[in-house]
């Protein structure tokens, strides 16, 4: 029995050791990728449910890793949060997102000018960037956002910062609250992400300076097949409406879900039905394809 215990220990210990080494290696690689600006963002369109018009994009982080291929955020965002790398990483992703959307909007402005007075204008696009609580707690954050907006010329109202419901519910503190209010003052909009998956005490929807509510995809999945689920989503939309929030349904994958959302008076949708997240180089083509039906 004594031997067994030893063997188990010997067997177990190297495993943990390997994991720790691998984690350290991944952290170092991520730090280097951030330094060299190798982490990038893909863009998923957010679409108006009524007429299918693209009104903005959510930016989603991607890491082209030399060995692992294109690594998704579920792998490296938690690592970045745990190691503090989220601050420089967040800065890099925010800057890319703001610069890209500023360029796409400039092209739209030029098209509007060319079309001449009296013709139908295309409205500017917004960009929604995911932000971790660690960033909101950084006392420099709102000044950085201000500087970034000024440098790019992007209107603050065209920047949306997405914070998950669980981040907002569990850990918001004085500094985070101050940052949110400063951003709000600036004109930046705040979205509550993954709504319905955190501790849903609804009173905080009124207390926090939120503009947009994103219904988590787990609520959308069964909306076309389950009347109960549809009733729940309809209720959420009615509450959001009453509070003056706009609503985005996430994870829309089927026409049936789309139709059901239209019936629920949902403003905006996002999901594979319309488009997966695209590399920045494909966004102009998507917008062009949309303009010529
Ligand atoms: P999220 O903010 O909820 O982003 C939506 C996720 O759903 C994305 O996964 C997107 O690719 C995926 N998705 C979009 N449409 C559909 C659909 O129709 N069906 C399904 N099943 N999924 C869909 P992704 O890109 O893997 O991102 C995962 C999470 O990582 C994000 O969830 C967000 O919480 C986090 N994340 C991504 N980029 C960043 C970032 O720049 N900063 C921070 N802090 N977090 C990020
Ligand atoms: Ca999001
Ligand atoms: Ca979400
Ligand atoms: Ca999520």
What is the share of helical residues?
A: 40-55%
Average of pLDDT:
91
Q: Mind summarizing the main beta sheet? A: 8 strands, mixed, barrel
Distance between the termini: 74 Å
Q: Strand order across the biggest sheet?
A: 1-2-4-5-6-7-8-9
Any overview of this molecule?
The chain is α/β, with parallel strands linked by helices and 293 residues long. It is 52% helix and 18% strand. The protein has helices at residues 2-35, 73-83, 86-115, 133-136, 141-152, 165-171, 174-186, 204-207, 217-220, 227-242, 255-263, 283-291; strands spanning 40-48, 54-65, 69-71, 126-130, 159-164, 189-195, 212-215, 246-249, 268-269, 278-279. An eight-stranded mixed barrel has the order 1-2-4-5-6-7-8-9, surrounded by five helices. Strand 2 and strand 3 (69-71) form a beta hairpin. Helix 3 packs parallel to helix 5 and helix 5 packs parallel to helix 7 (174-186). It starts with a helix and ends with a helix. Bound molecules: ligand C2E and calcium ion (CA) (3 copies). One calcium ion binds at residues 193-194, 214, 216, 250.
Write the layout of secondary structure elements.
Elements: H1 2-35, E1 40-48, E2 54-65, E3 69-71, H2 73-83, H3 86-115, E4 126-130, H4 133-136, H5 141-152, E5 159-164, H6 165-171, H7 174-186, E6 189-195, H8 204-207, E7 212-215, H9 217-220, H10 227-242, E8 246-249, H11 255-263, E9 268-269, E10 278-279, H12 283-291
Parallel strand pairs: 2-4, 4-5, 5-6, 6-7, 7-8, 8-9
Antiparallel strand pairs: 1-2, 1-9, 1-10, 2-3
Helix pairs in contact: 3-5, 5-7
The structure holds ligand C2E and calcium ion (3 copies).
């Amino acid at each position: 029995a004594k031997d067994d215990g030893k063997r188990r220990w010997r067997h177990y210990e190297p495993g943990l050791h390997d994991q720790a080494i691998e984690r350290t290696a991944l952290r170092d690689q991520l730090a280097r990728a951030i330094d060299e600006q190798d982490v990038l963002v893909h863009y998923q369109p957010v679409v108006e449910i009524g007429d299918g018009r693209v009104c903005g994009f959510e930016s989603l982080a991607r890491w082209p890793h030399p060995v692992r291929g294109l690594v998704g955020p579920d792998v490296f965002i938690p690592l970045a949060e745990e190691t503090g790398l989220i601050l420089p990483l967040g800065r890099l992703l925010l800057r890319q997102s703001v610069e890209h959307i500023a360029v796409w909007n400039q092209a739209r402005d030029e098209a509007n000018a060319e079309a001449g007075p009296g013709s139908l204008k295309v409205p500017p696009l917004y960009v929604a960037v995911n932000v971790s609580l660690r960033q909101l707690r950084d006392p420099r954050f709102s000044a950085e956002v201000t500087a970034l907006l000024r440098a790019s010329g992007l209107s603050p109202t065209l920047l949306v910062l997405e914070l998950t419901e669980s981040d907002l519910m569990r850990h918001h503190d004085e500094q985070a609250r101050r940052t949110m209010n400063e951003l709000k003052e600036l004109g930046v909009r705040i979205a509550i992400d993954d709504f319905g998956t955190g501790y849903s005490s609804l009173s905080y929807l009124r207390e926090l300076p939120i503009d947009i509510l994103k219904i988590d995809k787990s609520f959308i999945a069964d909306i076309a097949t389950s009347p109960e689920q549809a009733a729940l989503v309809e209720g959420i939309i009615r509450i959001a409406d009453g509070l003056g929030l706009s609503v985005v349904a996430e994870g829309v994958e089927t026409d049936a879900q789309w139709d059901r959302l239209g019936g629920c008076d949902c403003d905006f949708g996002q999901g594979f039905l319309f488009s997966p997240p695209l590399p920045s180089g494909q966004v102009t083509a998507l917008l062009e394809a949309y303009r010529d039906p």
